[in-house]
């Protein structure tokens, strides 16, 4: 797992909630462009569930909405 410039976790492997484990503890050390490092620490990443089921729209379906 790597972190983007914005601090978001990026991973080569897919982290799917339905496939355990759903929690990852990582040791990290921050460094600047000059290579100076800070103290190491552990972070925990929790994978949360989202509805990843594709919607199904059938032919001849109707709906209404308020203007």
Write a brief caption for the model:
This protein has strands at 2-3, 9-10, 23-28, 41-46. Helices cover 0% and strands 24% of the residues.
What does this structure look like?
GO terms for molecular function: calcium ion binding. This is Cadherin domain-containing protein. With 67 residues, the protein is an all-beta fold. It has a domain at 2-46. It is built from no helices and four strands.
Distance between the termini: 46 Å
Tell me the total number of β-strands: 4
Order of helices and strands: EEEE
Mean pLDDT across all amino acids:
80
Tally of separate helices: 0
Q: How many strands, which pairing sense, and closed or not: the largest β-sheet? A: 2 strands, antiparallel
Please mark out the parts with pLDDT under 50 across 5 or more consecutive residues, or reply none: none
Helix content: under 10%
Please state the oligomeric state of the protein chains shown: single chain
For the biggest β-sheet, the strand order reads 1-2
Provide the gyration radius in Å.
Answer: 20 Å
Apparent shape: elongated
Structural class: mainly beta
Strand content: 15-25%
Features:
67 residues; mainly beta; two-stranded antiparallel ribbon; 0% helix; elongated; calcium ion binding; Cadherin-like_sf; Cadherin domain-containing protein
Q: Mind sketching the topology for me?
A:
Blueprint lengths: L1 E2 L5 E2 L12 E6 L12 E6 L21
Antiparallel strand pairs: 1-2, 3-4
